[in-house]
Amino acid sequence: MPRIQPVDPALAEGKTQELFQEVQSQLGMVPNLMKTLGRSPVALEGYLNFTSALGKGVLSPKLQENIAVAVAGLNQCGYCASAHTAIGKKVEVEASELLKNLLGESDDSQTSAVLSFVKTVVKKRGRISEVELESIRAAGFSDAEIVEIIGHIGINTFSNYFNNIAGTTIDFPMVDVTQTCAV
Questions:
Q1: What distance in Å separates the CA atoms of residue 144 and residue 67, rounded to the nearest whole number?
Q2: Enclosing domain of residue 22
Q3: Mean pLDDT of successive 10-residue segments in the chain (183 residues)?
Q4: 70 and 97 share a domain?
Q5: pLDDT at residue 60, as a whole number
Q6: Is the pTM of this model over 0.90?
């Protein structure tokens, strides 16, 4: 049961209504995350803008979803694990890969290097060593890619914490996060 009630799109007004219309036109629906974030139009707008900007970056859509699923697993966010597993499948990430990503793992060496970095960053709250930073560079990632990986960790951590606190009702096929690699 939600602890912060979502805004009904039919009753939304002002900036919230405008943002809901944009989300509806892009996704064909207004997910419960957006409805609940709609309690604060500035929070919703900030989330949408940051997510949109990161989506235009150098990281592939697949890697963005690998990261989102791993962060959701680390933070045991059922909403985000469910949403990003569904989105991951749409960008052609295999279901078996998404299950591994929930554990912060991958069979692909490049994705595995990123998810290992993601786990380290999340578990250490960003206080990583020079050796840990150099390990992602040694795996072939540029500083631009590293900055975007950190951005994806940040926006996903925000939505994970928000959903965990708000009790956002999952409106995607449900993914169990109880067996993940929680922080």
A1: 16
A2: 9-55
A3: 96 98 96 98 98 98 98 97 97 97 96 98 98 98 98 98 98 90 68
A4: yes
A5: 98
A6: yes
Residue 34 in any domain: the answer is yes
What are 17's two structure tokens?
């209504």
Q: Check: CB of residue 45 under 8 Å from CB of residue 15.
A: yes
Q: Which residue, among 68, 147, 67, 160, has the nearest Cα to 114 in the 3D structure?
A: 67
Tokens of 158: 């925000």
HEC letters along the chain: CCCCCCCCHHHCCHHHHHHHHHHHHHHCCCCHHHHHHCCCHHHHHHHHHHHHHHHCCCCCHHHHHHHHHHHHHHCCCHHHHHHHHHHHHHCCCCHHHHHHHHCCCCCCHHHHHHHHHHHHHHHCCCCCCHHHHHHHHHCCCCHHHHHHHHHHHHHHHHHHHHHHHHCCCCCCCCCCCCCCCCC
Which residues are CB-neighbours of 171 under 8 A, at least 6 positions away? 29, 31, 32
Place of tokens 């965990």: 164
- Indicate if 136 and 157 belong to the same structural domain: yes
Residue 6 phi, psi (nearest 5): -70, 155
Q: Which of 180, 147, 174 is nearest to 72 (CA)?
A: 180
